[in-house]
Design a protein that fits this description.
The protein is α/β, with parallel strands linked by helices. The protein contains ten helices and 13 strands. Helix content is 38%, strand content 26%. Strand 4, helix 3 and strand 5 form a beta-alpha-beta unit.
């Protein structure tokens, strides 16, 4: 794939609409300085100097989709509470539509607060509800999602599962059936609870730990023949088309039950791996919607995951940096078109 073709592909992302269904949350940060210990208990006292709220969880996938030039439609249930207001305001700040957001007084908005001093993470406080949706709320959410398919022409659907209850087997089944009827590819970043319910999806993207747990196999890391056997069994079980496994420092593995490809990670100065999986599935969705070959999807997604690991904190991909690195990568590696 030459430079002009890659540029044209990246330009085509700007015309895409991508539905992101999953567990959105607020990542809240409190920065300050510790200079004494509490007289009440042997714990540090931090004087807060700065606070910031960011979109997190599945919403980070939306940020990455937006960074690639596509239009993300975030689809989630949030609480009718103060944090829900903060989340919708964060959407507006990022110029994202809230068409996909369903507000309910039966759920609470997830917020994860991190306390940081002198670049040290001292504490995290989670306020969340992770039980599955009630039947009534599940039905409302399914109808809400159906209305989005009527309003938008989607190029891909991403399930971003953080095990907080927004995604249920019934929701998966309904969405996959609608997507299949419209020839829209479906991608999954799974968690353990719903692992076996993602039947018939286009691309299933677990990390190495998740595929070991999901396949109930003790796969030696680096044994790609063993990994290939495990993914073949999982492909058959899920009736999925493609499985892509992220392998941290070993890169990515991708197969469609034919030949498999293992693409090593590029040598980098790793600063923070947080959010890399979100970036990988976001970029893979854009590439899949653009109908790129399997090996190219894996290569570009692998590069994207590595690039964000060079940044401190959870940050979306830089599209131009990814394009430049992709051009260099394909010019120096032999790939068939």
């Amino acid at each position: 794939m030459y430079s002009d073709k890659l540029k044209a592909t990246f330009e085509s992302f700007n015309k895409q609409n991508i539905l992101v269904i999953g567990d959105v949350m607020i990542d809240s940060y409190m920065w300050g300085k510790v200079d004494r210990i509490s007289p009440e208990a042997p714990v540090p006292i931090i004087a807060i100097s700065k606070r910031e709220n960011r979109m997190g969880g599945a919403a980070n996938v939306g940020l990455n989709v937006q960074a690639m030039g596509a239009k993300p439609i975030m689809c989630a249930i949030i609480g009718d509470d103060e944090y829900g207001v903060i989340f919708t305001n964060l959407l507006k700040k990022r110029e994202m539509t809230d068409d996909g957001i369903l507000i309910s007084n039966k759920r609470k908005t997830t917020i994860k607060t991190r306390v940081i001093s002198d670049n040290q993470h001292l504490l995290r406080v989670d306020e969340e509800e992770s039980k599955p949706l009630t039947e009534d709320l599940e039905s409302r959410f399914i109808e809400h999602i159906k209305s989005l398919f009527q309003k938008y022409s989607f190029d891909a659907v991403i399930f971003e599962d953080y095990d907080k209850g927004n995604i249920t087997p019934a929701i998966i089944d309904s969405v996959v059936k609608i997507a299949h009827s419209k020839n829209i590819p479906t991608l999954v970043d799974p968690k353990k609870r719903n692992f076996d319910f993602y039947q018939g999806v286009t691309l299933f993207k677990p990390n190495f730990k998740e595929i070991c747990e999901g396949s109930k196999e003790d796969i030696p890391k680096g044994d790609f023949n063993a990994l290939n056997l495990a993914t073949k069994e999982l492909l058959s079980r899920l009736k999925a088309k493609t499985i892509m496994v992220t392998l941290s420092e070993l890169g990515v593995f991708i197969t469609d039950n034919g030949s498999y490809h293992q693409l090593p990670a590029e040598i980098r100065d790793i600063a923070d791996v947080s959010g890399a999986g979100d970036t990988v599935v976001s970029v893979a969705a854009c590439c899949l919607a653009a109908k790129l070959p399997l090996q190219y999807i894996a290569a570009i997604s692998n590069l994207a995951g590595g690039l964000v690991c060079e940044k401190v904190g959870v940050v979306p991909i830089d599209k131009n940096d990814l394009l430049i690195e992709s051009i260099e990568y394909f010019q120096s590696n032999s790939f068939s078109n």
